[in-house]
Amino acid sequence: MEPGLGRPVEWIHSEGLEKDGATERLASADGIIVPGGFGERGIEGKIAAARYARENGTPYFGLCLGMQVMCIEFTRHVLGYADATAPSSTRRRPTR
What we know:
Elements: H1 14-20, H2 23-26, E1 32-34, H3 43-56, E2 60-62, H4 65-77
Helix pairs in contact: 1-3, 3-4
């Protein structure tokens, strides 16, 4: 990309992907960035975005939780562990 030429950014809340599905919302994306986060809110939407990226060859950049989400998606849909998740995104995690 030439200096000074930016790409438009469309912010999509992952909770919306949980409800509406990822295909329509992400079909026009040149790439997907999933940032860090905490807890379980929107996690299934983030997983849907990672799955969309993997299945459609869309570049995906996961930061912190975004990388964990990519691993969860692969573990669920490629390796077949349907209940795969991350300890940081479940309520079963012990609290202090």
